[in-house]
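Suppose a colleague, Dr. K., hands you the sequence of a protein chain of 158 amino acids and asks what its three-dimensional shape might be. Before reaching for any lab equipment, you can write down a predicted structure in token form. Begin with the sequence itself:
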Amino acid sequence: MISPEGLKEIDRAVAKYPAGHQQSAVIAALAIAQRERGYLLPELMQFVADYLKIPAIAVQEVATFYNMYETTSVGKYKITLCTNLPCELGGAEETADYLKQKLGINFGETTLDGKFTLKEGECFGACGDAPVVLLNNHRMCGFMSRDKIDRLIEELSK
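The predicted structure, expressed as tokens, is then:
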């Protein structure tokens, strides 16, 4: 379910912890699994649990607690907008309205072509750059004006 290269990455994460503490690598293992498969199917979480030799519930608890993990299908580009107070004060509500209008979807939905999913997120630690979006859990974009949103959507649509 995970490529040999992905398993090597998981092994490197496990090696960072003392013997018998492989559960400490579950966050890294889930990130690798999700990167390869797009989202965390129950079978994939079970595979990670078996590979790490830990209870499946320990993997599921992590996968369902952190919002960086997806347990259902998402679009090729997941756009997560911070909606905490500092971003709200910085214009996140207007940004949300524009993103919804531009993409034709609401929070928690994916465009019909499967390209974009729009999510609400918690603080990304970039309050001074409000409003902030996080693209695919890796790329942070701040000061998201309508022009910046237009450019981002155009870039990703190519």
